[in-house]
Design a protein that fits this description.
The protein is an alpha/beta fold. The protein has 16 helices and seven strands. Helix 11 (about 205-220) packs across helix 13.
Length: about 350
């Protein structure tokens, strides 16, 4: 994805749109332009989701190391960008006249409207828009998505059989990030760089499953921020099916802990027997030591609490179909990280 240079150069900028992968790429590119890696721990502030303008202003006022800018990123600013008339005068002032030595990126996960009375139709954001400081990443319509795929395929030196691009769009939607990842997978498995309908049927790679794998790998390593990031990507890519898919991944791992605990209580010590009980292949026997460490760390009581949390999360997900709140899965992710890493 090509990110606007005017957006990247802007010290105060707005990123919005419903393409989660596109947002991640654009955010990373803007951050790389404005944050000195050597001073990142001291100069970068990431505001909590759903924070108010007062928290943003307070973060901008924090001192940065000498010679470095104070960079503030608001990763979920949708609540701040609804109605123009609700923008406080003090906020308009520092958005119009940026505080010296500061940079600010507001990120909205939806599309920020420019309709009358909406935020992009009023100053200072209307000026930001004209100046190229507003960058939108959005889901393409069917025709535009096909054109995007065909163009992107040339970059990957892939030859798409007639109709393949349309089939991909029908399966995956118009998210540019998702479509790009699909081509990356196809590039790895396509012989002679030719993508046929047959190859598409054989691969039926579900990006949701890839996200679930990335999520589980992160919490098994104790990487809370990475796990939360992958959780959000999975839910945004597939809001209806992802929570249950992720829950299934967690349930499988916790069930293995339970089986290992029961087998140990019964005196089973043979690695091959334990592998069979846990549903592991002979090549996966090395994983048993890791499960043992988790059990030793959290004890039987901790294992009971983890099982209870799975049951509660399952109930919360199925009972919150309308609200689609990510909170139950976030809580579960944090608990899994702590259980596997000991934090």
């Amino acid at each position: 994805m090509d990110v606007s240079e005017r957006f990247l150069d802007a010290g105060y900028a707005l990123l919005h749109g419903d393409d989660s992968e596109g947002r991640i790429q654009a955010l990373s590119a803007w951050k790389a332009r404005h944050v000195d890696p050597e001073w990142e721990d001291f100069s970068l502030t990431t505001c909590p989701d759903g924070c108010h303008w007062a928290a943003v202003q307070s973060a901008l006022m924090e001192l940065a190391p000498f010679g470095a800018n104070r960079v503030v990123i608001v990763p979920q600013a949708d609540n701040l960008l609804d109605r123009a008339k609700e923008l406080p005068p003090a906020v308009k002032n520092f958005l119009t006249n940026p505080i010296e030595g500061t940079c600010l990126l507001l990120v909205a996960r939806g599309v920020v409207s420019a309709a009358p009375g909406k935020i992009l139709s009023a100053k200072p954001f209307s000026d930001w828009n004209k100046e190229g400081r507003v960058f939108k990443v959005g889901v393409l319509d069917s025709r535009a998505a096909v054109m995007f795929l065909e163009s992107k395929a040339k970059e990957f030196h892939l030859v798409l059989e007639m109709g393949v691009a349309q089939s991909l769009v029908e399966r995956l939607g118009g998210g540019q990030g998702v479509l790009t990842r699909a081509l990356e997978v196809l590039e790895l498995i396509a012989e002679n760089h030719k993508v046929t309908h047959e190859l598409l049927e054989q691969s039926t790679f579900r990006l949701g499953e890839q996200n679930a794998f990335a999520w589980s790998q992160a919490w098994q390593k104790g990487q809370i921020s990475e796990a939360i990031k992958n959780l959000r990507i999975a839910i945004e890519d597939e809001p209806d099916g992802a929570p249950l898919m992720l829950l299934g991944q967690a349930r499988r791992e916790v069930e293995r802990l339970c089986r290992l605990h029961d087998a140990s209580q019964q005196g089973v010590k043979s690695a091959s027997e334990l592998a069979s009980i846990l549903g592991l292949t002979p090549k996966q026997i090395f994983l048993i030591d890791g499960y043992k460490r988790v059990i030793d760390r959290i004890s039987a009581e901790g294992l009971k609490r983890l099982v209870a949390l799975l049951v509660d999360t399952d109930s919360d997900i199925k009972g919150g179909v309308l609200s689609r709140s990510p909170t139950p899965m976030i809580n579960l992710t944090i608990s899994l990280c702590r259980a596997w890493s000991g934090r």
